[in-house]
Design a protein that fits this description.
Strand content: 5-15%
Oligomer: single chain
Number of strands: 3
Helix content: 40-55%
Strand order of the largest sheet: 1-2-3
Largest sheet: 3 strands, mixed
């Protein structure tokens, strides 16, 4: 009589257990990588936005976007005159094609003088007070994001 060839139940269970152990080791490394990628994207977006706000200030006699007659997002994505008023034929802008989304809350709105860290918008721009010109991430995922 010829013996049957194949895997026994014990051999299959051993392979499944080994694969489970390998998955338990590898999966947490991918979640850390996605958090690192989000933080890197956040830093890049902050740097880009801050640079464009500085350019706006330089071209508008030190005025911040939104401090004139146009909202912050409209002032950065549209054309403006020297006073900051939205003007399709204006000499300045657009500074950005669109406002980037905050990678932690997926919002691309800018709150003027709001509370950074309350997750109500993607970004916060301080236009009055002691911290005038401060541009921050507005997400509650990590309190440190507000301070970047």
């Amino acid at each position: 009589m010829k013996a049957k060839s194949g895997f026994t139940l014990v051999e299959i269970l051993i392979v499944v257990v080994i694969l489970g152990i390998l998955a338990a080791i590898v999966i947490p490394q991918f979640t850390d990588a996605s958090e690192d990628a989000k933080e890197s994207a956040l830093l890049s977006n902050l740097q880009t936005m801050r640079g464009q706000i500085e350019l706006y200030k330089a071209q508008h006699n030190g005025a911040l976007p939104g401090a004139g007659t146009a909202a912050v997002a409209a002032a950065l994505t549209g054309r403006t005159d020297v006073d900051g008023a939205a003007d399709a034929a204006g000499a300045y802008g657009p500074y950005m094609q669109k406002i980037p989304a905050n990678p932690f809350n997926e919002l691309n709105t800018i709150d003027e003088d709001g509370t950074a860290g309350d997750d109500s918008h993607g970004w916060n721009l301080v236009t009055t007070g002691a911290n005038i010109g401060l541009f921050q991430a507005d997400d509650s995922d990590d309190p440190n994001h507000v301070n970047l």
